[in-house]
Amino acid sequence: MIRAATVDDVPEIRSMIKELATYERAPEQARATDEQLRAALFGEHPAASVLIAEDDGTGDVAGFALWFPRFSTWTGTRGMHLEDLYVRPHTRGAGHGKQLLATLARICRENGFERFEWVVLDWNEPAIAFYKSLGAELLDEWTVCRLTGDALEELAARAPADGSRAL
Fold this sequence. Notes:
- The protein is of the alpha+beta class.
- 34% of the residues lie in helices and 22% in strands.
- The chain has helices at residues 10-23, 34-42, 96-111, 125-133, 149-157; strands at residues 2-4, 49-54, 61-72, 77-87, 115-118.
- A 5-stranded mixed beta sheet has the order 1-2-3-4-5, with helices on both faces.
- The longest helix has 16 residues, at 96-111.
- It is globular.
- This is GCN5 family acetyltransferase.
């Protein structure tokens, strides 16, 4: 079963985020707290939405998908960015990941989103094969760029004092 997450799911979501970070070889980077997730997902201005996959037999949480809208200047339309997709190892192969992605694709169609995008680590061959089996196109010519820590602070310090405050 796929359902929208509720605020009561936050501890389970955080637990799965930590599991995903461990799988992706970066457990120390999963620092989000329950309070941060509650505010980001269920606060006054939610930053993202979460779907929960539950095992039909046991009712246990099998996985989750966290996504948010994005906008394409090229198409002039909104799209969806899937930030995290995670299915617990002991529940893999039962269709939970496919159901989560199919539900997200339906949300895209229902909202007129023309693009559904995410990133995958280049060493994660099982995930790459899974995504390709669903018809996903891997965009090898695009590279993710990221600023964090000191580099982000240094660039921000270069901004003009009268810059816009968009948020």
